[in-house]
Amino acid sequence: MTSTGNAVQANYDLAFDLYPYARVADQDACVRHPVVVVGGGPVGLTLALDLGRRGTPVVVLDDHAGPGQGSKAICFAKRTLDIAHRLGAAAPMMDKGIVWSRGRVFHGDGQLFQFDLQPEPGDRHPAFINLQQPYFEQAMVKAIRREQAAGAPIEIRGGNRVTGLEVRDDHARLEVDTPDGPYSLEADYLIACDGARSPLRKMMGLGFDGRVFEDNFLIADVRMSADFPTERWFWFQPPFKDSGQSALLHKQPDDVWRIDFQLGSDIVREVELQDDRVRARVDAMLSSQTGEVPAYDLVWTSIYRFQCRRMRQFRHGPVFFAGDSAHQVSPFGARGANSGVQDAENLAWKLDLVVKGKAGQPLLDSYHTERAFAADENILNSSRSTDFMTPKTDASRLFRDAVLDLAGRYAFARPLVNSGRLSVPCVYEAHHGFGPDDFDGPVKTRPGSACCDGPLGNGFLLDALTDGFTVLTLGQANLSVPGLAHLHIERPTAEVAARFLGDAPGAVYLIRPDHHILARWAETTPDAVLAAVARATGQEGFHAPEA
Amino acid sequence: MPLKLDPNLSDPDGAYDLLIAAHDGLDKAQSDALNARLILILANHIGDLDILSEALQAARAAG
Ligand SMILES: Cc1cc2nc3c(=O)[nH]c(=O)nc-3n(C[C@H](O)[C@H](O)[C@H](O)COP(=O)(O)OP(=O)(O)OC[C@H]3O[C@@H](n4cnc5c(N)ncnc54)[C@H](O)[C@@H]3O)c2cc1C
């Protein structure tokens, strides 16, 4: 058994004390759990909450007692908010979070253009909110505490550091250090949500494939009460002194602003982190539009390097990797936490069905297929943003500068300007288990896509979907299937009709527990719907030849 | 619509002249930048990624 000896020293200062260490009976005898999650970041917490609400017991181990100070993620996308809402955790996020709509893009001294993000009419959530990551985690833990009080089998063990791992065919055994000394526990399924440096990944000797970008980003969070607009400002080749290749200014709650300078590859960290150097840059940026430096405090500074890469396999027998432990992207486009939360929700319902014996192993394999596909899409998008911001060749710089030169004058060039593409859920296109698509309907709701929202009665469509499979019928199509939840919308609102029907008089949609659309038909039979569910869950009939 | 590689310019000499004249008085870097802007404008005008990618292949093949 490996033990650090120096049991569970904190690596960072906490923003909130959410799950302090407490001794549990398990520490006296090795107990086997159905699901153990390592890591109580946004991903591990989402997974635990989703599993627990479904009634599958889950233990979360984290080596700290809460999130660290200083926010990593600040942008949480609509899909993440929809997921948090389904899990009952979104209200505090929406209360605290900041909605912004105007962005400005600058090139050198001049403003190239500005844009306004309009919310989709009839959706509950905006395209995204800005919120410090510790608040996101706090809201998740709050929802977990509420579910625990209502009997959900979720346990969070803070101050529990995993130091050893043995993987068998059908379970994993963990060595855990605590302030009371080490203990062992076992898991039928072990989910590694232990972050970018994933100790579990290292213990298994697994690596990453992909690109490492050499650029260093200086992050400075500053607090200022000055009346500064709630907008996103992005500079290519900022004119202020020593500010690097690009710079970003973005509002967070609590009068805090996120400032980001892309410093390039050739820097001395310690020097760049000196207060006066940071302040010189921040002063230049904040005064760039008005000529005056507003009063501000430095709340948090840090220098980061980013990588765009992922593990080859997200599943290794009983061990699954989710979130940053499985994949990493550059921060432009806010795809880290947002995609990790989607990993969690993809895995939660699948694990739940398998643990309860209602689905077989192929369903769990589809976690890797679907989320590795999503990771590739995120990596592609964030690599493209990074390449636009820091051209790596002469030709790419030539085109990048040409786009910027054109964008100030001609609207056509603005969509080519890439300062990060908003995180949107990926469409599991042509994936095994999805389909059929027997309806010539809108592209937005094709099988594989995340079900979009829309007004329904006094509420929203997504709220009317269940945590299980739902048959959604609209207009003239109306079909209930034994054993499946059914939602019929006789007279859809204009938004819902445009998204789900197009010009058709009716349609049948089958929606998965993670609210991705599994199949759709102009009209169909209960048997066909049940066959689609069976195919999606890797059940009987799965191998039967299709008629 | 496939990429046109048969003669399509109504006045080839005039068109060629336009391209050259546009670079009058520009140094190498300015010329390169002008070409890049021109390519982007034309690419947007074409709109279709298949045609663009055919055109790129054709251009590479001839070099
Ligand atoms: C500067 C910056 C800006 C970012 N901006 C955004 C953004 O705007 N939007 C966005 O979506 N993402 C953003 N990200 C990415 C986002 O922060 C991460 O993707 C996210 O934190 C990943 O969550 P996670 O749960 O996978 O891992 P983490 O948040 O890293 O959590 C891992 C947890 O595991 C615990 N742990 C580690 N080892 C052990 C062990 N041996 N035993 C027990 N516990 C252990 C850790 O203490 C930690 O609590 C940003 C990142 C950075 C650095």
From TrEMBL, chain A:
InterPro entries: FAD-bd (IPR002938), FAD/NAD-bd_sf (IPR036188), RIFMO-like (IPR050641). Keywords: FAD, Flavoprotein. Its cofactor is FAD. Residues 34-377 form the FAD-binding domain. It comes from the Bacteria. Gene3D superfamilies: 3.30.70.2450, FAD/NAD(P)-binding domain (3.50.50.60). This is FAD-dependent oxidoreductase. It comes from Jannaschia pagri.
From TrEMBL, chain B:
It comes from the Bacteria. InterPro entries: DUF2783. Pfam families: DUF2783. This is DUF2783 domain-containing protein. It comes from Jannaschia pagri.
